[in-house]
Amino acid sequence: MTRITDIPTSRTANFIRFQRDPLGFLVDALPLGDVVSLRTSSFRPTYIINSPDFVQEILVHQEQGFRKGRSSDVLRRTIGDGLLTSENSVHRHQKKALMPVFYKERIMAYAEVVEEETKKLADSLEEGTPIPMHEAMMQLTLGIVARSLFKTELDSRKAELAAAVDVTIRETAGTIFSPLILPFGIPTPGHVKHKRAIRTLEAMIYEAIAKARANPEHYSDSMLGLLLDTQDESGQALNDREIRDQMMTMLLAGHETTANALVWAWYCLERTPDAAARLRAEQDELREEEQRTGKSQPAYEKYRRMVYAKQAVQETLRLYPPAWAILRESERELTMLGDRFPKNSSFLISPYAIHRKEGVFGDAYAFRPERFDEGVSQWARFAYFPFGGGSRGCIGSQFALLEAGLILGSLAGRFEFSSVPGQGEGKPEPLVSLRVKNGRWMVPRRRR
């Protein structure tokens, strides 16, 4: 018996609804079935995937039968042929080469950078003075990525570079889901702005590459140093453009997503006082122990003991996963779990929607970090998957969890944040990753 269900609404109505409210459209499709056909062209049919076992088929068991397709083509305008956009053997080679960047000993060193940069931000906050939390988190994570992966200090350039990232994200998102993709060479106002932003980011990247080539010993323990020693599939050393593509990938994918998740975390904590109190209590306990013993623990050890901070991050990623949609296209006709799908079928997988399955999570729309007390193994493998899965799962997922957990815990230990009145409820903005629409202004109050 087939598990494919036809959506009852027309193609035109579906298109208009998705363009206006893609998240609402995907959530409303949840009760329709495990696989929902949008009744598009028979030559290029489109399906929404709502079942964890079908997600596992696409991302793991039969991943070689799929390509990223349209999303990669658009992202390639900004990041080139980096880990996020490469396919098949090239992707496997790149991922293998970059894996050492995220080994445990490297992440332990990155934790110190996260703690130092977070302390700088905390020291700069003024009691009662509103801050644009979205900009603060964006600049913080940008500085962390630059220092930890590229061994580069951004200092006064953070705001300029963060603004350039914002432009690339908005222009890319506007293109991925557009019915018509204009060639990048056509000088539309959006393309001109997008290319200017890319040049701003490239200036920093190529400067860092030049410094690393001139003094490789200094960069030997960084991602940049690793890239200098990496060879392509033919055994040749990477050229500057190839290194640039990997750095651009990490720059965009490695900080914008974490920054957005953190803004959502502050928003959720403000609206869940019990969770915020438990987070602060955990930090108080860690601080009191350090005062009692007279010993300051390494940042990584602190993170290991921030159990509730990590759970708060995991719950934020459940409700507001940065990668709100995953797109795949079949390269050949496939049979999955008894159903056949033609070549060139498109599949839309939404962690945002699947994470809201009431039958799986219970009280699914509530922010309850304690639901992770028993870990993620209590659910089906792809009932919760904020970092994707399979060979294309996020290579930096452990770093992202550590970074977000340390930032959240460290700042919550020193401040309480409340939204500036008049902003209303936070609304998700589904760009390349999931943002709080219009950002969020918040007021820091120092804890006594």
Quick overview of this protein structure:
The chain is built from 18 helices and 13 strands. With 448 residues, the protein is α+β, with helices and mostly antiparallel strands.
Structure description:
The chain has 18 helices and 13 strands. It has about 450 residues and is α+β, with helices and mostly antiparallel strands. It has a domain at about 95-325 and about 365-445: Orthogonal Bundle (Cytochrome p450), CATH 1.10.630. The strands form four sheets. Strands 1-2-3-9-6-4 form a six-stranded mixed β-sheet, covered by helices on one side. The protein has a three-stranded antiparallel β-sheet with strand order 5-13-10. Helix 4 packs antiparallel against helix 8, helix 13 crosses helix 18 (about 395-415) and helix 15 packs across helix 18. The longest helix has 26 residues, at about 190-215.
Tell the overall outline.
globular
What value does the Rg take, in angstroms? Answer: 22 Å
Count of runs of 4 or more consecutive helical residues: 18
Number of strand segments: 13
Strand content: 5-15%
Which spans of ≥5 residues are poorly predicted at pLDDT below 50?
Answer: none
Main sheet makeup: 6 strands, mixed
CATH superfamily of the domain at 95-323 and 364-446: Cytochrome P450
Classification by helices and strands? alpha+beta
The CATH architecture of the domain at 95-323 and 364-446 can be given as Orthogonal Bundle
**Overall average residue pLDDT:** 93
Strand order of the largest sheet: 1-2-3-9-6-4
The CATH C-level class name of the domain at 95-323 and 364-446: Mainly Alpha
CATH topology of the domain at 95-323 and 364-446: Cytochrome p450
Rounded to the nearest angstrom, the distance between the terminal CA atoms is 63 Å
Helix content bin: 40-55%
Family: Belongs to the cytochrome P450 family.
Binding site for heme: 394
Organism: Cohnella lupini
GO molecular function: heme binding; iron ion binding; monooxygenase activity; oxidoreductase activity, acting on paired donors, with incorporation or reduction of molecular oxygen
